[in-house]
Write a structure and sequence with these properties.
By secondary structure, the protein is an alpha/beta fold. Helices cover 45% and strands 9% of the residues. The protein is elongated, with a radius of gyration of 21 Å.
């Protein structure tokens, strides 16, 4: 099956923002550390994999996602990105676009939803997914031939490897997070139901729906606190179902005019050269970009 690479771009922009030194600046004096770090990540991915089919998904729905309408406190624990970082997100998107990589973003859907929708559409075209992200939420998308790749740690796993990492099957990830919550996204789950209890319940019942259909069985299960867990589940049934709406990745998001096979396009040499100049990329970064895109960037060389 043909691999389709699906990149959770915002994760790698944030990582670069936090890990790269603040010595990088554009020609206007704004910091560009996240752009430099993200560019290195993209170059390394293209050098190693030479992908023919790829999408780069960005989070544009920072506080306007459809999940915010369902639950206004969704991700409310996160501080807004500072102007210095927002500016760099725009440059990272422009860089991918200039390289010829399909760039996805939407005001109502998160990067996870765009990845899920692109993968869902591509399955009928003979593609398997390689999801480049460490985010456990995305594991729910994995089917038999798919992979998830934590690029920074060099770890890859398929659908069968999800249980060893998270204690539940790939198909149960959304239900699991609906039960035990997800502090990163400010999703409450069911109060008093932790990760271990959620895993035990799903191992026995298979799904959240089956759990609530057979909730009378819960007090008789052989784990500590089973009777109390049943009470908590009955009290917070509607909250658990709401949380599952928040944790389930959409597979019907609009994809900004892109469609399978999400083929990698030709680089725009002039635009890419101008970005290299504005970002003050050094000669090594320009040389690597030239190699992976096969365009001449030497005319805009900047000694910095």
């Amino acid at each position: 099956m043909k691999p389709l690479y699906l990149v959770d771009a915002s994760l790698y922009v944030f990582r670069a923002w936090h890990s790269m030194p603040d010595e990088f600046h554009d020609t206007d004096g704004w910091p560009t550390n996240a752009v430099h770090g993200f560019a290195r990540f993209v170059i390394e991915l293209l050098e190693r994999e030479r992908p023919r089919h790829i999408v780069i998904a960005f989070d544009e729905a920072l506080d306007s996602c459809f999940r915010n309408a369902l639950y206004p406190a969704y991700k409310a624990n996160r501080a807004p990105a500072p102007p210095e970082l927002k500016r760099q997100f725009a440059y990272c998107k422009a860089l991918c676009d200039a390289i010829g990589l399909p760039v996805l973003g939407h005001g109502d859907y998160e990067a996870d939803d765009l990845i899920g929708s692109a993968l869902h559409q591509s399955r009928a075209h003979g593609h398997r997914g390689i999801i480049i992200s460490a985010d456990k939420d995305l594991s729910q998308l994995l089917l038999e031939h798919d992979e998830q790749w934590d690029f920074a740690r060099g770890q890859r796993w398929g659908m069968a490897g999800v249980k060893a990492r998270h204690g539940v099957e790939a198909r149960q990830i959304a239900d699991y997070l609906a039960l035990c919550g997800d502090a990163i996204d400010n999703i409450p789950g069911v109060p008093g139901i932790g990760a271990k209890t959620a895993a035990v319940l799903l191992a026995h019942f298979g799904s959240l729906d089956a759990l609530f259909e057979r909730i009378d069985e819960v007090p008789y299960l052989r784990f500590r606190g089973a009777a109390q867990a049943a009470v908590k589940l009955r009290l917070h049934r509607e909250q658990a179902l709401l949380c599952r709406q928040l944790t389930t990745i959409a597979i019907d998001a609009p994809l900004a005019g892109f469609a399978p096979p999400f083929a990698r396009g030709a680089a725009e040499a002039g635009t890419l050269a101008a970005l290299c100049q504005a970002m003050r990329f050094g000669p090594l970064t320009r040389k690597r970009l030239q190699t992976v895109t096969e365009v001449d960037l030497t005319s805009s060389s900047d000694p910095s």
